[in-house]
Write a structure and sequence with these properties.
The protein is α/β, with parallel strands linked by helices. Helix content is 27%, strand content 22%. It has helices at 56-67, 91-107, 120-129, 173-182, 203-214; strands spanning 13-19, 22-29, 38-43, 71-75, 112-118, 136-140, 160-165, 188-192. The chain has an eight-stranded mixed β-sheet with strand order 1-2-4-3-5-6-7-8, sandwiched between helices. It is globular and about 40 Å long. The termini are far apart.
Length: 224
């Protein structure tokens, strides 16, 4: 099944970041509200199913973050769009995330690093969260029970939000719920009713879930 994609609304700042497999295509977008001292990297879904940084779920999550005062950095994993290399089942993609995070920290040393990801991107960002010292994590439809291993991941202790549609036709929502509740320090789980994997007709609800979920994490509390 192809990932639903769309170019993000408005202009974004195209970037080229040096990665372990060559050029990484990326896009940086400034905060749209009073800026917070935070930069969020948002990871896209499975490349072999058409996932890119222009996926609608990815761009909506990034929009919600920007509307909360957080700058965002999206990028294409190796072999996607203008990024060089080829799909590496998650290991090379984690290396790509490491390179993007290093770029972000070098150029924005005053900002805390947050990670977010959708589907395959949720798995990659979860795997990197502890190592990269992320200050917060957002996992949208993490692919629990599919081909990706979750048992040996260093679990985050930072604020962590999981968003899952209960009508997901690709990721088993019950498997996600069972996994979350089995964790020693479970993240906050938001279960969205009548919601498919790609959040068809529910993207605005996703926007609200992200904004509400992170509101209490913001270093500078938003105005009432």
């Amino acid at each position: 099944m192809n990932e639903t994609t769309a170019k993000p609304a408005g202009a974004d700042a195209a970037l080229v970041i040096d990665g372990p497999a060559g050029r990484i295509e990326a896009a940086y977008d400034a905060a749209e509200a009073t800026p917070q001292p935070v930069l969020a990297i948002v990871c896209h879904p499975l490349p072999t199913e058409g996932g890119t940084m222009h996926n609608k779920v990815v761009t909506m999550a990034a929009r919600a973050l920007r509307e909360s005062g957080i700058a965002t950095l999206r990028f294409n994993f190796r072999g996607v769009g203008g990024s060089e290399g080829k799909f590496d089942n998650g290991d090379g993609e984690l290396d790509d995330l490491r390179a993007v995070a290093a770029w972000a920290r070098a150029r924005h040393p005053d900002k805390a690093l947050w990670l977010a990801g959708f589907s395959f991107g949720a798995w990659v960002s979860l795997r990197g969260a502890v190592e990269l010292g992320a200050a917060a994590l957002i996992s949208i439809a993490p692919p629990v029970g599919r081909s990706w291993e979750f048992t040996d991941i260093a679990l985050p202790t930072m604020p962590w939000l999981v968003i899952q549609g209960d009508a997901d036709e690709i990721v088993d929502a019950t498997a996600v719920s069972d996994w979350v509740t089995s964790l020693p320090s479970p993240p906050e789980l938001v279960e969205m009713p009548d919601t498919s994997h790609f959040f068809h007709r529910k993207l605005m609800d996703l926007r609200g879930a992200v904004k509400n979920g992170i509101r209490g994490w913001l270093p500078q509390p938003p105005a009432a």
